[in-house]
């Protein structure tokens, strides 16, 4: 069985297990109890000061989740960054760069190799033009960012809600339609940490939130983007007589992307589901000759190197106005406070 198929099958099994407290979930519960005990001990060590968190001299906004798997964090990061930029604030972004092969600290540029920086940081850079730094330790990425861009006023951390080594001033917890699943910790359930727990803002990115809270609208743009940034209208792709359409997705919920494409009137002749963060190293474009390939922006930044004629359909993500209003109110208080002491961390980052 191919690796992609094995991973998809495992993902489906876990997804079903985590929706209810069935026999398999109960079987895993002792491991979940152990996981929760160790996680609680770790949090206590930070609270008691045994383990130290790095404080930055500017406000830090962490966008993360408590449920394993994609919940729409990266679109939230980009929406927050663009919103703050529109107000004239100098915003930087830090990330671990999930899936990248490099381990050093480096800045993400428009043409940085995806293997070195990660697909989501590259997408954030492409869509916001904000300074983006990646490192295994997020505080190191922050230090490098502030050293290169000392006028930065706010840092947004992509993921890292459980990364307690970095102090944060404002936490945004993102949920999709799964909510908290069966409410149990890994591996018996989907939770990385117990919920509920205090956060500053909760945002639901799905169409059917599992519980009350602020929401966001997700729609596809009415056009697709080529590698050279030119556009083609989706209406043109839907016209009869053209090449058959192949939609592929290497994201947490590929079927949601396919459903949105069909809702735009696109007659998909074929769909291809790949594991989240798939690197496309084994992808062979000639196997799909004769198709017009459509994908997400996150996939396109990797796929274009192997299939330059692939089309990426951007996601239009719009948090409700109340979310942005509450964000502005809380951030205004943080910006009015005296800055934290300067960050002191070891040197040794590189840029490329």
Care to describe what's here?
- The protein is α/β, with parallel strands linked by helices and 352 residues long.
- The protein folds into two domains: 60-218 and 317-336, Rossmann fold (3-Layer(aba) Sandwich); 222-313.
- The protein is 33% helix and 19% strand.
- The chain is built from ten helices and 15 strands.
- The strands form three sheets. It has a nine-stranded mixed sheet with strand order 3-4-2-5-1-6-7-8-15, sandwiched between helices.
- Helix 9 links the parallel strand 13 (292-296) and strand 14.
- Helix 5 crosses helix 9 (297-303).
- It is globular and about 65 Å long.
In short:
The chain is of the alpha/beta class and 352 residues long. Helix content is 33%, strand content 19%.
Instruction: Quickly give the CATH architecture of the largest domain.
Output: 3-Layer(aba) Sandwich
Assign an overall shape.
globular
Query: Could you spell the SSE succession in H and E letters?
Result: HHEHEEHHEHEEEEEEHEHEEHEEH
Note the total helix count. 10
> And the CATH topology of the largest domain?
Rossmann fold
Which structural class matches the secondary elements?
Answer: alpha/beta
Give the helix level as a range of percent. 25-40%
Going across the biggest sheet, name each strand in turn. Answer: 3-4-2-5-1-6-7-8-15
User: How many strand units?
Assistant: 15
Radius of gyration, in Å, reads 21 Å
For the sheet with most strands, the description reads:
9 strands, mixed
Q: Uncertain segments of ≥5 residues (pLDDT<50)?
A: 344-352
N→C terminal distance: 38 Å
Average pLDDT number: 91
Q: What percentage of the residues does DSSP assign to strands (E)?
A: 15-25%
How many separate domains make up the residues? 2
CATH class of the largest domain: Alpha Beta
